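Replying to the earlier thread about multi-chain prediction with a worked example.

Input:
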Amino acid sequence: MHAQPEDVTAEVRRLQRCVNDLVSLVALPATWSGGGPSQIVHTLLGALQRVLQLDLVYVRLRGSDGHPPIEMARLAPPHGRTAKSREIGEVFRPWLGAGPREWPPLIRNPVGGPDLSIVPLGLGLQGEIGEIVAGSQRADFPRQTERLILSVAANQASIGLQAARLLSEQKHVADELDRRVAQRTAELAAANRELRQEIADRKRAEEDLRNAQAELAHVNRVMTMGELAASIAHEVNQPLASIVASGDSCTAWLANEPPNLERARAAAGRVIQAATQASEIVQRIRALFRKTPASTTPVNVNAVIEDTISLLRHEAQRHGISLLTELDSAIPPVRADRVQLQQVILNLVMNAIESSAAVDAEPKWLKIQSARSSPDEVRVSVRDTGPGIDTAHADRLFAPFFTTKPQGIGMGLPISRTIIEAHGGRLWAENGEPRGAVFHFALPTERNAK
Amino acid sequence: MSGTDGIVFVVDDDPLVRDSVADLLGSAGFTVRCFASATDFLDSQRPDAAACLILDVQLPDRSGLDLQTELVKSGMEIPIVFLTGHGDIPMSVRAMKAGAVEFLTKPFRRQPLFGAVREALLRDGETRKQKSETADLRRRLATLTPRERQVMALVVAGLLNKQIAGELGTTDLTVKAHRGRVMRKMGAGSLADLVRMGEKLEVFSNPGVRPK
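Result:
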């Protein structure tokens, strides 16, 4: 073909513009990254209309799972963006989805004006993504360069949309995964909460049980101390008698002519000594009446025995029973709650006094022994000269509310056993030789206490 | 007499109480001896003087009431003032019935204690006086011959010499001589005196009754 110089110049210019347009279209995907299909279509429409001075450009994307179809159009100014994409789509509807060859070259302009030359292009390899329809009132539309630009744009858009779809699917999968993880997490959290609640409930139940046991133990202690009232009164009245008598004699020595200061001083000394003794007794009694939460410390079992029986000595005497001790001074300390241990000894000795008193046989005695029964265990035994344990009762001995005493509530032994077992020890009974009963309890030494 | 003559025995197992009571009594001029147990007291050598016992009802080796019973049984009667930490009524009744002078509840003041101790010492003084008189009479009675005893018994029973002679199968004169010796040996100033002695010594006419 032989071309005129001015035609050549125009052709060169057109080609130059075409290259520029192509470059700007190729740059489009950079603006799409991470964007959705509507954003891709939106920029694509703008770029094509601007680059090719199109009167109309329309894109329809097929719907896919989870995504509705998208329809967008762009018209040449002054119509601009406010294109009525649905109405435009209606005009193209008969040919949409068909191959580009099926389209007529001219179609009625949906927004009025001369008919439009049409270029339909498929998006995706088989048009499976959707279609672009470009239209111009120019009769020579499309020129070769325009067709090239359109098909490059369509390719770019296809890739971009494909990527967007993939991204969206990935996002969907990720969202689904997130949702499932969240759901499972919630389930686990709920299960956790339930578990925690269960633990709290159980803890509370245990606490309630412990409180009830402590309450019962306290009642038992108070009742036992009530039985001991006469002995305790005696115990307290001893130092009081000494205080009053010494006070009286102190006054008398001071009233002498001349005052006998030496003897008055001695009497005042006895007042102090007796008052100290009285306060110690009161402290021992208070320790037994006190309601304290259990706290374990290293305890010298012999000291607890001595303390407890100091309150019981007169009770034993009152019943004509000799109170004997055989304490091994070499026993190691045990880890125990002192008040509770005192209560167990109190219960066992009171029982021994009562059963020894119930028998006419002489002599009446009870013996408390302490010994290291094994390298890691301390044993305390309380023997009496009472009637012993009736074999018919042996298995109920430690059952709550079982009692052979007219005034008993039958809680002394079960409480004692609970206390000893809570200390990791054992409490048991047997008949003595030649008569009477023996109650033993064994506690782990401090080093072996759990 | 100040009322503090005699010895006060204090038996209490609590050393503080024992010392305090002893010192209080000492401050009022009483002579005091202390014991920690009933056994110690029973084992002790007691001087021949008016005495009383201050006793804790509850002692480690035996109860104060048991000691009281034991003392009465063995004839070592001594007035007892009981001390108790918790004087219950049955115990007090038992103690008072068995001859306790007083039953003091701890703690006690000096005046009730002194009052009780004075009373107890007076009582023991009386008893001892009577006892020593009786013992004296017994010694005199022991110097009588069997025949003189028979005569004394019949005289005390209120028989006349003639009746006694008939009873013994002897003469008035012999009876009169026996009777004179009885009066002299017994130290009786009159018939009434002799009758009183006879009653005290339980000399009766039925044969076989002999003084201890």
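Chain A has ten helices and twelve strands.

Feel free to reuse this layout for your own posts.
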